[in-house]
Amino acid sequence: MLQNQQWSKVKKRLDSFTCESLKERVQFTVTNYRRAHDQLGRAFITVDKKEVLNMCTITSEAALNKRTYEIKRKKQIPYTDWSQESVVWNEAHEWVLDEGVFAQYDFFDAVEEYFQNSIEESLESNNMLIKIFALIDRRAGKRTLEKMKQSILCEKEIVQFFYQLRCKAEGIRIHG
To answer: Which InterPro entries match (predicted)?
Structure first.
């Protein structure tokens, strides 16, 4: 599991996939909070030293708790009924991920899956983080990126942001 590997090694491998045109501009960072009970913290992605995606475990857990409560209320499951907890948690987690709220562990899970996938699988992934990694991947060529012009319009704003960033860096016209 990647969380157990040394972050510097994971970061080096992740950076090795970044295309030349964005190598100096996109940075991946992980911060752990020593005093947190689980010692997790957050991961974040910066572009030109500006944070564009924050994956904070505390923020994610708060959103998960809220969604879990909403699902239980909607399905009329007593809040103290733990028998369906894993089903409810999975539904809440999918909901939160779809909203673009990620925990540090979601970042590590996405990186691990990205390392195992082909570039084609990563570009077609339903996981926003994996798709973002793939959009800035040196293995995604200009023709591939150009073919995505229409389909990218259906993606979340942050995915579109990374697509536009890559296209601009590569000199690919995306409008007109």
So the answer is: SF0329-like
